[in-house]
Design brief:
It contains 5 helices and no strands. The chain has 196 residues and is mostly helical. Helix 3 packs parallel to helix 5.
């Protein structure tokens, strides 16, 4: 299909396009998809299917045999027979301590989201990073090093190969990475013959 629109002026052309656009929008053509509501970024979504008008009420562990507590069988803490006791819980494995059972059940509750209120809170470790103290002289040694290397590269006394030869034994891939290891800057500056 080809449509040709001709007009004597720009204003007539714009008017014709606007009229054509209005007629197309007014036509009762069914949309190819149903318009969905826009969600805010911070909105919690409990059931993604509800957005599209479909509710999937199946639990996350559907199709998996679980005990009365909603936990699946786990060979680390449950008997290999996969049998359940009269109370509906898995038969415990022999030789497993109560602490091991509690830890593994907490993992299973977190993974399977079964009875999250009863899941114990696990301890977390804090990792600290040692950051070297700033240089007290007021002169940035990295900046001084880079000025010296740049000047040496410009006059030909420092080559790219020499830079790599000095940095490679230190495990530094490039000069900018020295900002992560300021303790190596004096040694690198000495290797280049630059006074910091």
């Amino acid at each position: 299909m080809q449509i040709t629109i001709s007009a004597d002026s720009l204003s007539e052309f714009i008017s014709t396009i606007g009229e054509l656009h209005g007629r197309l929008n007014a036509a009762s053509v069914p949309p190819p998809y149903e318009k969905l509501d826009v969600l805010e970024l911070n909105q919690d979504i409990v059931d993604p299917g509800s957005i599209f008008g479909q509710s999937d009420a199946r639990p996350l562990n559907a199709g998996v045999d679980v005990d009365l507590d909603g936990l699946p069988w786990d060979g680390r803490i449950h008997a290999s027979s996969r049998a359940k006791l009269a109370n509906g819980k898995w038969r415990p494995k022999r030789g497993v301590t109560d602490a091991q059972v509690a830890t593994i059940q907490a993992e299973l509750r977190q993974t399977w989201n079964s009875n999250p209120a009863a899941a114990p809170v696990l301890e977390t470790a804090t990792v600290t990073q040692v950051i070297p103290p700033p240089v007290p002289t007021g002169v940035d040694p990295f900046l001084t090093l880079m000025k010296g290397v740049t000047a040496g590269y410009a006059n030909g006394s420092i080559s790219a190969e020499r830079i790599q030869d000095i940095l490679a034994p230190l495990g530094i891939p490039s000069l900018p990475m020295l900002t992560q290891r300021p303790d190596l800057i004096p040694a690198v500056a000495t290797a280049f013959g630059i006074a910091i």
